Amino acid sequence: MSMIQVNELEKSFGSERALRGITFNVEAGQIFGLLGPSGSGKTTTIKIMTGEFKPSGGEVNVNSYNYKQFAKNDYVSSLGILSDKSSLYERLTVKDNLELFRKLYNAPKGSVEKVLKDVGLESEIDKTVSKLSKGMKQRILLCKAVIHRPAILFLDEPTSALDPTTTEKIHDMLEELRDEGTTILLTTHNMDEATRLCDKVAFLYQGIIQDSGAPSDLRHKYKREEVHITYNDGTMKTVEKKEENRQLLNNVLFSEEVADVRTDFPTLGEVFKKVTGKELV
């Protein structure tokens, strides 16, 4: 079942076309990644789905609600959102902040302690938010977004500026939410993150989806039919995978003079550059 359906979505700001007729679907229980450089339209797409922006054209349906219904309480309460507009009450403690949202969404008692443990901040529960580092605040904002185990979660760069250990904790939590049935749409510049987490990604560039699919499928689609050979003396050779080179490649596999053999299997970042001609930064 499609939880998010976007068809020929347009958004303009004056004469500037931020989105130029994008189309994609996200199935229930999937993690879907919108990948693109700054200014490509990722955040605009999320803000349309959360009701902050109205589309200039096309159709958007999320959890059976169309964009004209995005202000309804039932729709809003089904969402979890982490965006550049997310905020906390600086003078309150971490616990008091999260308890406010737990009660607002009628989440079970114990939810505060669980989400804090998930992001590695259980020891900071009684600390005033104003005394937290930027990275800690980002994790608390994520806790706020997921405390009610939403049906749909929108995350705009959820792990930016977080260290690798903390990022790993966040990934584990998002995978747990997906396994529970939450549908997640995220934006990220981190290609390792997208490769690990996302069931499907879309390359968004200049307001247009250039290609989409499962990360592994996209990497296979754009791989080059070459084999890279490294010999023991450090020299390297590239051989195309053609019928005329079959015997050479077979010999290489059993040669004691060869140190390493690898195929040209691109990273997701390399695929993005090949598709768009642009580095994903």
UniProtKB/TrEMBL annotation:
Highest taxon of the lineage: Bacteria
Coiled coil regions in record: none
Gene Ontology MF annotations: ATP binding; ATP hydrolysis activity
Keywords for the protein's UniProt record, in alphabetical order: ATP-binding, Nucleotide-binding, Transport
Alphabetical list of InterPro entries matching this protein: AAA+_ATPase (IPR003593), ABC_transporter-like_ATP-bd (IPR003439), ABC_transporter-like_CS (IPR017871), ABC_transporter_ATP-binding (IPR050763), P-loop_NTPase (IPR027417)
PROSITE patterns documented for this protein: ABC_TRANSPORTER_1, ABC_TRANSPORTER_2
Record has Membrane as a keyword: no
Occurrences of domain ABC transporter (ranges): 4-231
Official protein name in the record: ABC-2 type transport system ATP-binding protein
Organism: Jeotgalicoccus halotolerans
